[in-house]
Amino acid sequence: SPVEKMPLLEIVVTDKTADWAADRAFRIGLKMGKQIIVVKDSPGFYTTRALAFFLAEASLLLEEGSNIEEIDGALTDFGFPVGPITLMDEVGIDVGIHVLDEMNNSFPDRVKLPNGLDAIQKSGRLGRKNGKGFFIYEDGKKVGPDESIYELMGDDKRTYKFVPAEDIGDRCVFIFINETIRCLEEGVLNHAYDGDIGAVFGLGFPPFLGGPLKYVDHLGAKNVVNKLKSLEEKFGLRFAPSKLLKDLAAKDGKFFPEES
Predict the structure, then answer these.
(1) Nearest to 78 by CA among 186, 177, 182, 4
(2) What are phi and psi of 170, to 5 degrees?
(3) In 3-state terms, what secondary structure has residue 135?
(4) Class of residue 94 by CB neighbours under 10 A (exposed 0-12, middle 13-18, buried 19+)
(5) Which of 4, 83, 136, 246 is most enclosed, with most CB atoms within 10 A?
């Protein structure tokens, strides 16, 4: 955000898309100097879908009692350029909530939304664009978190709960990684390379990690499955490892075996 500055172009094709149309879009993207991935039509396509899971988990942490600075700090420490709460303000809270609602409708068994988002939207907060969001803005500059957000998120019942930065990062990052793998499993992504390009150039996934799928290769698929199973036991089915990941772990495989 803003869109015109994004280095990524995500071209969406359907079964009815003519080859010449996709080719023309690709060539235009090259002339624009974009990094390009071609994905199949799906709710949220790839980048918005994976990002929605990331933002939903961050919102749940906020509702559960973590502070805005702790959530954002955990993810910027991991390597993201901005934290998820800051990103909601930058994109627009109304846009973010619309996306989360659509993903919840499409994947109700895996997308869990906090109750407080409705209250935030009804309070008139749109984020940076109207100077009123998760953060306070003065003369267009972000000066700090808006403490009144906490009451809205908790419906007057929220109490502060310390969550270690590593645990915050694990919940947001591994649900993001798992959804990326699901997109590859379902054929929304044509290749693991596209998942990494889209995440790094479209979503700010730390480039020094190579992308979510390269990161899985680095950690080891078995270790990632075990991490997701641990999170599933604590927080529910939304963390259940994808079939593709479990299959990869079973044969001790990698998404990029040629680079081993």
Answers:
(1) 177
(2) -60, -45
(3) strand
(4) middle
(5) 83
CA distances from 210 to 10, 31, 215, 244 (A): 19, 25, 6, 20
pLDDT band at 152 (very low <50, low <70, confident <90, very high): confident
Per-residue pLDDT tens digits for 242-256: 999 999 999 999 999
Q: State how far the Cα of 55 lies from the Cα of 99, in Å rounded to an integer.
A: 10
Residue 127, C-beta contacts closer than 8 angstroms, at least 6 positions apart: 88, 89, 90, 91, 92, 93, 94, 96, 133, 134
CB atoms within 10 A of CB 2: 7
CB 80 within 8 A of CB 204: yes
Cα 117 to Cα 159: distance, rounded to the nearest angstrom: 17
Report the Cα 245 to chain-centroid distance in Å: 18
Q: pLDDT of 173-188, one tens digit each?
A: 999 999 999 999 999 9
Cβ-contact 121, 97 below 8 angstroms: yes
**Of 202, 189, 211, 213, which Cα lies nearest the Cα of 87?**
202
